[in-house]
Design a protein that fits this description.
The complex is a heterodimer of chains A (about 160) and B (about 350).
Chain A (H helix, E strand, L loop, with lengths): L1 H8 L9 H19 L2 H35 L5 H32 L30 H6 L2 H9 L3
Chain B lengths: L1 H25 L9 E7 L2 E6 L13 E4 L17 H7 L4 E5 L12 H20 L4 E6 L1 H12 L5 E7 L12 H5 L7 H8 L4 H10 L2 H14 L4 H14 L7 H13 L9 E2 L2 E2 L8 E7 L13 H4 L5 E6 L5 H4 L7 H10 L4
Parallel strand pairs in B: 3-4, 3-5, 5-6, 6-9, 9-10
Antiparallel strand pairs in B: 1-2, 2-4, 7-8
Helix pairs in contact in B: 3-4, 6-10
The chains are: A mainly alpha (about 160), B alpha/beta (about 350).
Chain lengths: ~160, ~350
């Protein structure tokens, strides 16, 4: 009875008898492969394979790009390049806003008499939708929040246009 | 009859193992669970502040900013509850911030190390200072993140950087025989411009293949054997699952930064020669004055120790330390020994310099 229980309790692994052999083989293989990939021949072969792939796929990629641009033009839709250019402009605008944010921080510091008062600690911001919304950054704008009613800022930021 | 029962049980056990194995390989583990708040964002980059668990009066005064590589998710720093560097440091009383570079899109293909180190990083740091109310800060850079923090530290030595921690930092590329990546990316074999022309950004899968191909047997076979052998140990399975979730979550690398990495660093070693030019200005490592801790993984095959040793002699820091730990590139921070070795040492070094 107990013998049977012991047998059934032990998990069965079909690879168990071969494990030691397998490990020894893998160890040997691992050392061989590490040496193999660290050779000039491997570097040359992998470079050639990559070049071959890129050369072979280039005509199809170019044709696809051209036809896609034409199709998008026909449909009066922006191309990938145009959307990318727009995104770059957005990033520039974001940077300008960030610079303005920095200037506001400096002004706020001066207004506070030079004392460097810290921003509200994390999780303590009472503005709705700020602490919870992980997808939206908490803007610093301490000057704005000091000068204007807090509710107006929240509405301006969170209300969909 | 007994034999039939044994065979039936064996079949059920095998079925259970196969189910667990498949489950672990095909699902994502919950990682990066430490509570945090998004405090700043620019383009794809996001700055998080981890919710402090230590009372303000008991916390370290100097905030700590974590910078990870640009071609992997930073969630490795906060792998899983109970085994997370972030969780550990928050518990030790640090005001902790993490800069997540995000996933570059086609529109970000021109982003260079210059942009990361001198556009994004200073802005994030400004935010850290504004929130913490402290003009000084510490920065921990890991892997490519260490390159960015080093460039920043050299270009902005008066910006309040008090402590600089570099983990497995690939900074010195002079020993070309000791660096497998340097061999692979040699200009004789590797046409970086053709890759960027084809893809814009370097696909995450390609970067993942490069990292795994350094140790192909371990990464493609032994790793899975280890999981199979330990399927009955829930702790091992949980750890493996979390790590696999991070490893398989590949992101592309911005083309401009990749080109600089290959041409300026891997091929020409410009940073260590003090010849790297960023935004028209030469990066002089001698201008780094922050307290410096360099952590080297002795078994690192991605960033061999020879790449991280020379930085100590190059910087102008008066307080500097080299700390060697047995382990691999990721293992020293996310491996099972990390909570007993790397993390306490980092805490010990940093806490003495954060008051």
């Amino acid at each position: 009875m107990s013998e049977t229980q012991e047998k059934t309790a032990k998990p069965v692994d079909p690879l168990e008898p071969f494990r030691a052999m397998r490990d020894a083989y893998l160890d040997a293989m691992a050392k061989t492969m590490v040496e193999a990939v660290n050779t000039e021949a491997y570097a040359q072969a992998s470079g050639a394979m990559l070049d071959g792939y890129l050369a072979a796929s280039a005509p199809m990629r170019e044709a696809l790009d051209k036809s896609m641009v034409q199709a998008l033009q026909q449909l009066s839709l922006p191309s990938r390049q145009e959307v990318a250019a727009l995104a770059e402009r957005f990033t520039n605008v974001e940077m300008r806003l960030d610079d303005m944010d920095a200037k506001l921080d400096t002004i706020a510091k001066i207004l506070r008499g030079g004392a460097h008062a810290p921003e509200p600690p994390a999780g303590k911001d009472s503005r709705p939708g700020v602490a919870k919304a992980a997808a939206q950054p908490r803007g610093a704008a301490p000057v704005a929040s000091a000068k204007r009613p807090r509710r107006r800022i929240v509405r301006g930021r969170n209300t969909p246009r | 009859m007994e034999q039939a029962v044994v065979a039936s049980d064996a079949f059920v056990a095998l079925q259970q193992r196969l189910w667990t194995f498949t489950q672990v390989l095909t699902t994502k583990a919950p990682i990066a669970q430490t509570p945090k708040e998004l405090v700043w964002a620019l383009n794809k980059a996001k700055l998080y502040r981890y919710t402090p668990v230590v009372a303000a009066e008991d916390r370290h005064r100097t905030p700590l900013l974590l910078i990870f590589a640009i071609m992997n998710r930073p969630s490795i720093l906060d792998l899983r509850p109970g085994h997370s560097f972030v969780e550990f440091m928050v518990g030790q009383g640090y005001d902790l911030y993490l800069l997540d570079w995000g996933v570059p899109g086609f529109e970000d293909r021109h982003l260079k190390l210059d942009d990361y180190a001198l556009e994004y990083l200073p802005r994030a740091i400004r935010k850290v200072k504004a929130i913490s109310g402290c003009e000084e800060f510490s920065m921990l850079g890991w892997c490519i993140g260490a390159i960015l923090t080093t460039i920043y530290a050299a270009m902005r030595p008066d910006d309040g950087l008090r402590n600089l921690l570099l983990l497995t930092a690939p900074l010195d590329f002079s020993d070309r025989n000791g660096i497998t990546f340097a061999r692979w990316t040699d200009e004789k074999y590797f046409n970086v411009d053709r890759i960027l022309e084809a893809f814009g950004n370097v696909p995450g899968e390609m970067i993942d293949y490069g990292a795994k191909a350094l140790k192909p047997v371990e990464n493609y076979i032994t790793n899975y054997c280890k999981l199979w052998d330990n399927l009955d140990d829930p702790q091992v399975v949980e750890a493996w699952h979390a790590m696999n979730t991070w490893v398989t979550d590949n992101i592309p690398m911005a083309g401009g930064a990749y080109r600089q990495l290959i041409v300026d660093l891997y091929r020409n070693n410009l940073l260590m020669k003090n010849e790297l030019v960023v935004r028209g200005e030469r990066v002089d490592l001698g201008r780094i004055r922050a307290n410096l801790l360099t952590v080297i993984a002795q078994g690192d095959h991605i960033t061999p120790p020879c790449q991280s040793e020379a930085i100590l002699a190059k910087t102008g820091s008066k307080d500097k330390e080299l700390y060697r730990i047995p382990g691999g590139h990721i293992g020293i921070m996310a491996g099972s020994a990390a909570p007993r070795t790397t993390w306490p040492h980092i805490d010990q070094w940093l806490s003495a310099r954060s008051r």
